[in-house]
Amino acid sequence: MSAAHNPAVSSFDKARHVKYWLRCLRTHLPTLYQSNDSTRMTLAFFIISALDLLDALHSSTTVAERAAYADWIYRCQHPEGGFRGFTGAGIGHLRHETNKCWDPANLAATYFALATLVVLGEDLGRVKRQQCLQWMSSLQLEDGSFGDALGEHGGVVGGQDVRYCYCAAGVRRILNHPAGNGRGAKDGDIEIKTLVRFLSSIQTYEGGFANAPFQEAHAGWTYCGVGALSLLDQLPSTPKRANDESNHECPAESSLLQRLLHWLTSRQTSVLQEDGEYEVSDENATEPGPSEAPDASNAQAAVVSSSEIPSSDTPSIEYTPDDLLWAGFNGRCNKVADTCYSFWAGGTLAILNQVHLMDFNANRRYLLDKTQHLIGGFGKLPGDPPGT
Predict the structure, then answer these.
(1) Whole-angstrom Cα distance, residue 26 to residue 112?
(2) What is the residue-wise DSSP string for 11-31?
(3) Which of 77, 131, 281, 380 could make a disulfide contact with 305, Cβ separation 3.0–4.6 Å?
């Protein structure tokens, strides 16, 4: 470790973080997050879960307070199954067949509601379990993916989104579907085989998962894809260590997992801010005529000027030993480190039992030294305000 780095700097101020999350729980949300009131269920999950992870939920809140939080969540339960994102969407006795599409349950809120109830220690006895499972199965599309809600005339809103696939797998796991066979909507379950087929279709050639087929891999979507497979007990066996004599994986599965692990570990980066970008030269650009095919000679119009490209014997980025002390994770290729991807990428490695592949200490220093905020919480990037 460089002598310029003071190990005392890399410290986690638990009291400060507890104070921040209690402020979010008991008072008005910070200004930056007030526009997200319609997704209050999501915020509730992250706030209550943060306090639980800090081992402060029970010591900093009373039994009556926790019961009140659970009651609020149950007030968001939809009469036809699932949960709303916040109580403001409920129209109560004014609800009828014509306007009920304006008062829908949504899949993300349902997952966060159930997960928060579990964190609060609820037994889920007040959950409309069968209605919820039946409603959720109606959100599954032919390709196996899930929409978010039911709109007008019972049509599914949204779709081909791996985040909803993860939420569906999570809801199914939490409610412990009694059939457990994935036979489909007839018994209130989802179609497991078609969902797994969809998830397989969004793994890219790089190894990560995209949001839909033929899109770019992303760490958040990769977590959701791998997490969904894990929740469904459909995750291929993870690679064994080289000296493990029980290493008898299917070659195709092993190749896919190795590409996934390579992509995930490649997300760790010591590039913490955007700088040194090349300027784009367009001074030679010409507009082709209406019937004129693009001219290859004008291809230089929107490319980097040759004088700005580093020579092969000169590294484009120069690192000092201190620079390598901090290494967070990015979400996609050629992006800077971002706090949330320490979870999305690191969490995926944890699901795969491969956390040892990351540089844990460099990531810890990045979070504690660079994005831990003075008032508690962590910012997206160094200097940013804390978020949820």
Answers:
(1) 19
(2) ---HHHHHHHHHHHHHSPPPG
(3) 281
